[in-house]
């Protein structure tokens, strides 16, 4: 009878369990341009619920330059931009004379300096990958695309992207264990209104929050919610710009001297003839940008060792815009120094791999890659990330953070001190005087006490 029951139960699990239930699954979601502090400024109930049920990294230090294509590639490769080769949204390769832009991004040449996780997952893993519009996922990188993917088209609605992803995650042949999902907001509105326009940004972020709710409901309806790990993050933040804060290059240097490969706020300048001459003219172009020869770019940017980085790089101060002489049409921008909090996104994650209710102040976005490889059981490609930075987020890792460690050391010291004091006190303790003892002992002595 019990054998029959066991067979029946295993039959039910076999028929109704999820395809590939035994392998860990991971869905990586990016809401473009979601600045870290939006989480505190706006009421976002779906995201808050997601965070309470999982982990939150309040600020993610992203890669320099803080632009969309470069940072999305850093997240999925664990590499700084100089190492993965997507060094800007607009690029030029002097050897091949090729150009790259967001409208001309499908030549594998640009992407092949690194291997993104969706390719490694298919080469090594227990399943295949699927992608809805994450930058690079519709390009044959190292001769492979994700098994399921969509050609990039910004007019495809969020709901449609989610439906595709959920359908693919439900596939049993082949099993999909890694998927990515990308959405253009709140970046588009952040550029349009500026991040401090709370009235307009509130509406946009409420829509983003509803998208999170929709994603959750779809994953729940398909039975994936309890078994899948979901990471929600972004590529960069947003700073307020102003038409009053313009650095006008035409006022300092004639256009015939250089080609502007990438624009504000990090402008890539290719001098036509005399590099030093162009550099010196640009140096005199106001006090609101840094001018670097490629070899002078600060080490902390990790932005020097790639031939696609142009000979002169201009970095505008926060909120300033580099133009040739055009007027400014946007009120928000990103790309600035990655040490600025306004450039930082957040990361939230929930699922069996993650703790519940844990919060951490920061990680680097290149740390996300080794963490994802760990969850999927993959051997990572060489990368710039540090897995131990993410250990406290994960249920299968032992970790101790600095405040906890200090607390434990202080606690142990206090206990030891207390014990030591007790021992010293008890050893030095003098027996209490017993003034009548002799008298009592001698109580039946006949000798007189005195005299
Ligand atoms: Zn943007």
From TrEMBL:
Q: Which reaction does it catalyse?
A: P(1),P(3)-bis(5'-adenosyl) triphosphate + H2O = AMP + ADP + 2 H(+)
List GO BP terms, alphabetically: blood coagulation; positive regulation of blood coagulation; purine ribonucleoside catabolic process
Signal peptide region? 1-17
User: Matching Gene3D superfamilies, A to Z?
Assistant: 3.30.1360.180, Alkaline Phosphatase, subunit A
Keywords for the protein's UniProt record, in alphabetical order:
Blood coagulation, Cell membrane, Disulfide bond, Glycoprotein, Hemostasis, Hydrolase, Membrane, Metal-binding, Signal, Transmembrane, Transmembrane helix, Zinc
Q: Which PANTHER family match?
A: BIS(5'-ADENOSYL)-TRIPHOSPHATASE ENPP4, ECTONUCLEOTIDE PYROPHOSPHATASE/PHOSPHODIESTERASE
Organism in which the protein naturally occurs: Anas platyrhynchos platyrhynchos
CC annotations in GO: plasma membrane
Q: Which GO MF terms does the UniProt record name?
A: bis(5'-adenosyl)-triphosphatase activity; metal ion binding
> Mind telling me which InterPro entries this protein's record contains?
Alkaline_phosphatase_core_sf (IPR017850), Phosphodiest/P_Trfase (IPR002591)
Family as reported in the entry's similarity comment: Belongs to the nucleotide pyrophosphatase/phosphodiesterase family.
Location relative to the cell: Cell membrane
The cofactors named for this UniProt entry are: Zn(2+)
Q: What function does the entry list?
A: Hydrolyzes extracellular Ap3A into AMP and ADP, and Ap4A into AMP and ATP. Ap3A and Ap4A are diadenosine polyphosphates thought to induce proliferation of vascular smooth muscle cells. Acts as a procoagulant, mediating platelet aggregation at the site of nascent thrombus via release of ADP from Ap3A and activation of ADP receptors.
Name the chain's protein.
bis(5'-adenosyl)-triphosphatase
- In short, the EC number is 3.6.1.29
What is the primary gene name for this protein? ENPP4
